[in-house]
């Protein structure tokens, strides 16, 4: 279980201006949940995710996983980045093995586990390929396999499908749902795309100006196809989220 | 998994099999270019006269005095023609460059990782990187004698600075999310250094190695010009002393030839070491 | 006040670097006193600072050879501080003159020849092997050749610097032109531009940023070239002062001149950076550059 207590993070710009990226956020995320963090860019969702990963230090408050405070990156939390982080200088197989190598697992076992995960993401035949020989969508599959093969019970995903085309994106969303259901791991997924949240999430946390403004249970039935998302409940959720995201009180002229 | 089969057809893997079997027209352009070089040189000789000996005289000098030359001994050079001097200069350049490259790569990557190392190395690199390194040559000749050591140390200093700067820049160019990704997978600082920073810097390190090695020949040669017991620079300065311009250019030509070959081998090594690089990224 | 405060802040941030500089200076002094005593009074193995800025400095007046303003030690005159300063200024001026003229001439010749050779891609391919050889032929080893052609004169040094710099700019220009995206040129051709017009209005502006990136490289190279030319042959200039000192193993004088060259090189790099900032201010930034 992840518990976030009064998490705050203040960045100081070079100009001296302070930016409050996280503002006393509190929440708990249970084991095996699929949570989407939604929000417009610059409203703290990536900061929260990076804090969960331990790549970012909080200025106040605490994040704990199973009661142990997060002090830095750890093998209990895996991450899939928005950028292409598949190491281009390693073969696909070596990439997937990397987390296991870092954990000091012997070579034979490493190879077995990595092959298994490559099969699961549909890249069984590409173990010996260089990443440059793969398409962008296939490299994302490698990144997902790497994160899952590392064995972390919690997986953090920072807009991983952002730069992909629509169809590839849908494929990868389905793949991710399959993997989530078959492994029962906790997934925290950052996105700015409401439709993506509707397809994936069990629960949506909406962030605005560094605070959680809503915690929505996405209780749609699976598969979350076009009809399901267009159901009255689906549309209601969309509207609620959209309301949080877009309808800021902008009054021109008022300071 | 249908998209996998669809993308496979579009993959560049298939290109590997389509290497041309017959010589491409490029090679003819290169041969023509080499011919042009010698034609212009010959024309230069016809215009300038004895101050620019024609290519055949220079090549004849390089060939006849290559292994054994009584003429060279008569000039006061050690017995054995160009050959032992070429070996000496090559040994100096390669060894100095290798030692410097290892040191520079380590300090450069180290400074990219640790602020303390960065702060320690910065003033030293600022001094060594700005001052034309060959002003140190006379010092080295006094401190380390007119032996190969002086040359090697000079080349090593220069290569270390070049590789330090290239390594530092290489890590800066490497996207930080690579290291972050590795750390979320449980990699410690050492593993990030040797599995991420080091391999990720390889393409730029080869660029630095090429620059360092290219300059190493000249640095070795000028230390020899200033006075060491052997080396191609020694031949150049000795033949210069008796105005034997053909033998002097012969030495220069042989040195350039070695430099070209070493550079070509380095580029082959780079290609082998960076097979993972996307095409056209360098 | 502001400058002092800025210095203070810099020291607080970079105190380790400051300590390293102090350690180098102190370490040199200690090494100077620890090193085995040299049999010659004028040539300690590691000259301590007080020796460098004392005896070695006045000793430089040995290289003042004009019977004016200060006594000439070669003709039996006394060693004076004024003579030392005059000698330094005289030879520095010569070196800086050779460096500057060589840089400018070499830069101009290299870029113009590069543009001419880039007239068509066939010419480019034909001259490629010669350019490769020119780049790979070790510059410093060619000094005797230039001395042979031009004598031990000012011109020999200038032409040598210009050659070294010119080769870099020549290759830089040819490569930069080859790297100009073909779509720019095709677009201009579709619009009916002549070849000359394309060269002037498209290729030249497009390659400018890449050419400026060679400035630092060629500055370092020009320093090496001018010092090298003065080491071998040319009988004047600050590089020649190092060799004069070396004849008699005057390590103190060598160290002093090395420090002066270091100061010049640093100043020239700083000036170059200022100049580049000024010039690049109006040049559009290339994506990814």
From TrEMBL, chain A:
SUPFAM superfamilies: P-loop containing nucleoside triphosphate hydrolases (SSF52540). Residues 5-234 form the ABC transporter domain. SMART domains: AAA. Keywords: ATP-binding, Nucleotide-binding, Transport. One of its GO terms (molecular function) is ATP hydrolysis activity. The keyword Transport applies. PROSITE patterns: ABC_TRANSPORTER_1, ABC_TRANSPORTER_2. The keyword Lipid metabolism does not apply. Transmembrane segments: none annotated. Belongs to the ABC transporter superfamily. This is ABC transporter ATP-binding protein. It comes from Amaricoccus solimangrovi.
TrEMBL record, chain B:
It comes from the Bacteria. Keywords: Cell membrane, Membrane, Transmembrane, Transmembrane helix, Transport. The chain crosses the membrane at residues 27-48, 93-112, 124-146, 245-268. It is found in: Cell membrane. The keyword Membrane applies. It holds the Pfam family BPD_transp_1. It is a multi-pass membrane protein. Residues 86-266 form the ABC transmembrane type-1 domain. One of its GO terms (biological process) is transmembrane transport. InterPro entries: MetI-like (IPR000515), MetI-like_sf (IPR035906). One of its GO terms (cellular component) is plasma membrane. Coiled coil: none annotated. Belongs to the binding-protein-dependent transport system permease family. PANTHER family: ABC TRANSPORTER PERMEASE PROTEIN MJ0413-RELATED, ALKANE SULFONATE ABC TRANSPORTER-RELATED, MEMBRANE SUBUNIT. This is ABC transporter permease subunit. It comes from Amaricoccus solimangrovi.
From TrEMBL, chain C:
The keyword tRNA-binding does not apply. One of its GO terms (biological process) is transmembrane transport. Pfam families: BPD_transp_1. Keywords: Cell membrane, Membrane, Transmembrane, Transmembrane helix, Transport. It is found in: Cell membrane. InterPro entries: MetI-like, MetI-like_sf. Belongs to the binding-protein-dependent transport system permease family. This is ABC transporter permease subunit. It comes from Amaricoccus solimangrovi.
